[in-house]
From TrEMBL:
Pathway: Cofactor biosynthesis; molybdopterin biosynthesis. The keyword 4Fe-4S applies. Monomer and homodimer. GTP binds at R23, R74, T109, K170, R276, T277, R278. [4Fe-4S] cluster 1 binds at C30, C34, C37. It comes from Trueperella pecoris. Its cofactor is [4Fe-4S] cluster. One of its GO terms (biological process) is Mo-molybdopterin cofactor biosynthetic process. Catalyzes the cyclization of GTP to (8S)-3',8-cyclo-7,8-dihydroguanosine 5'-triphosphate. It is an enzyme of class 4 (lyase). It comes from the Bacteria. This is GTP 3',8-cyclase. SUPFAM superfamilies: Radical SAM enzymes. GO terms for molecular function: 4 iron, 4 sulfur cluster binding; cyclic pyranopterin monophosphate synthase activity; GTP 3',8'-cyclase activity; GTP binding; metal ion binding; S-adenosyl-L-methionine binding.
Amino acid sequence: MSQESPGALTLRDQWGRVARDLRLSLTDRCNLRCSYCMPPEGLEWLPTEQTLSDAEVMRLIRIAVEMLGVEEIRFTGGEPLLRKSLPELVSFAASLKTASGKKPDLSLTTNGLGLDKKAATLAAAGLDRVNVSMDSVDSGIYRHISHRDRLDDVFAGLRAAREAGLTPIKVNAVAMRGVNDAGLPDLLRVCLQSGAQLRIIEHMPLGPRETWSRENMVPQDEILELLGETFELTEAERDPSAPAQLWSVAPGADHPGGSVGIIASVTVPFCSTCDRTRLTADGQVRNCLFAQTETDLRGPMRAGASDAELAKLWAEAMWAKKPGHGIDNPDFVQPDRLMSEIGG
């Protein structure tokens, strides 16, 4: 390992990127079966003893923030609302101080089911904002994608999040050709009317292998062309560390305007500015969403490793990060784990 390797225990890789954003999966379980994420029959969930306990999650959060320079934590799943202790985990994270002396920025990626009952509690615990997955405002299309008839529950969750101040609310939608792409303008209109920011995501090869092909993926250029038929869009200056490129949307007769983001991970990757580190529900560090290897923290932690030893393992895992995800490479291989098993 070179002299630039993690002697100071920052999550720096050999390409000069530093991870400040922790994506923390709290469970691999989910109450939807979205086709781009898992098969309709679901997956074999991790046994409870293989997932991190609350105490273990809290310890690793503390190490990330106090020893490794993490400034943002996004709680993910599976569906993180299924973790009953979520408010306690949020509260613990909110009690920590980053290197700048501030509370970590805390957010949640959720499918919205049950958010109406938990939004106020999570806001009181210290959660700052939410990202809600909603791939269509057409109930039939939503049911076709998710294999569940729960769109009304998602809208209830969005309303509760807004009332609890968990804003800005971002709505995530995976664009799929011939499935929900034609309805993206309607989805954007609803988001603009409610003050939410729609973020359209290019379909990535992270679900069942038979569900993805480059030919069936809707690229950013086509998404813009489709939206441009209905809305007046102006490209905004890009935040280099943000996954989404934003476009301003001019006000229209039936909406007040706002913005829309596109996460073009496949056709316009942002790997060169990626600042994320990922921790799975069973305690594995992934230095990239598409990584083929993981670094185990659960085993050493349960075997008695010190905080310093765990921090060193984590830093070394990030040092080994590749320059990019390699989807365009001829030798690209999809990760063994599906999206719900990795964490969003």
